[in-house]
Specification:
By secondary structure, the chain is α+β, with helices and mostly antiparallel strands. It has one domain. It contains 4 helices and 10 strands. It is globular, with a radius of gyration of 18 Å. The structure holds 2-acetamido-2-deoxy-beta-D-glucopyranose (4 copies). One 2-acetamido-2-deoxy-beta-D-glucopyranose binds next to loops. Keywords: Signal. Residues 1-19 form the signal peptide. This is Secreted protein.
Length: 224
């Protein structure tokens, strides 16, 4: 009985199209390579940063919005960039969703303290950061967030990426995210799965010529 009520609700939802942008879409992500996109973003110099973490489209819908992603990022120790210390240039990516090249929605940096000063400090000493791209064009509407994660040198080195900084940045972010976290009254349970075959191992086309291991970690983030 419950199953059939649920089935009719699904049918109703499909028939009326009342699904909002906050309803689940039903797929982890689509491979950008399959539709003219790339797992490297465009850093503007002919090279790109690897999109080495995906927040799955099967995550809680509220996580997959800009505000939701920021709150989740805060729960694992990241902040919005400190005013006046936005040193990294804006980048763009083509996620194969029919939208072509779109700008990052936001750039987040690791928060070294409890106040906004934490992020300012991070901009000076270096640390982990990431850019977020949303796969929500009509040709591949997973709602997944693609992250270009890296670990940087400090500001005196003009925010360049440390050797092996893409793989290290990914692993650090994933370690901080997996399990239970919370921020602003929202609690998250996050699981991780490594995927190969999306991102080519090596340094071809990769910004700063830094080789990557080709692993993309897919996080599924569920609000408890
Ligand atoms: C994307 O970013 C570039 C560089 O910051 C900017 O010139 C351009 O207007 C942006 N495009 C959109 C659609 O916001
Ligand atoms: C797609 O994502 C962008 C960036 O977060 C957002 O501004 C836009 O509203 C989203 N579009 C849809 C249809 O969800
Ligand atoms: C992709 O295109 C769709 C449809 O035009 C639009 O609603 C959405 O906001 C775009 N996504 C991004 C990230 O710009
Ligand atoms: C993913 O791969 C990285 C690098 O090899 C490894 O450190 C990590 O434990 C792996 N994570 C999972 C969930 O398999």
């Amino acid at each position: 009985m419950y199953a059939s009520v649920f089935a009719s609700l699904l049918a109703l939802q499909a028939a009326t199209g009342f699904a909002t942008s906050l309803s689940k879409r039903g797929v982890d992500y689509y491979d950008p390579n399959a539709n003219g996109g790339s797992m490297l973003d465009n850093a503007g110099d002919g090279y790109g940063e690897p999109l080495n973490v995906i927040i799955s489209g099967l995550s809680s819908p509220a996580v997959l919005t800009e505000d939701g992603a920021i709150n989740f990022a805060r729960s694992i120790g990241f902040s919005e960039e400190c005013f006046g210390f936005h040193l990294g240039g804006a980048q763009s990516a083509n996620l194969g969703d029919g939208n072509g090249s779109v700008n990052q929605t936001i750039e987040l940096r690791e928060d070294y303290g409890s106040s906004s000063v934490g992020t300012c400090l991070e901009s000076l000493v270096g640390g982990n950061h990431f850019r977020i791209y949303v796969q929500n064009g009509t040709e591949a509407d997973s709602g997944a967030l693609f992250l270009a994660v890296s670990k940087e040198e400090d500001v005196s080195d003009s925010h360049t990426i440390v050797p092996d900084g893409y793989d290290i940045g990914r692993n650090d972010l994933v370690s901080a995210a997996v399990g239970q976290t919370s921020f602003g009254g929202v609690s998250y349970t996050t699981t991780a799965q490594n995927v190969t075959g999306l991102l080519t191992p090596g340094s071809t086309g990769v910004n700063h010529g830094i080789a990557v291991d080709g692993i993309v970690t897919v996080l599924t983030v569920t609000i408890n």
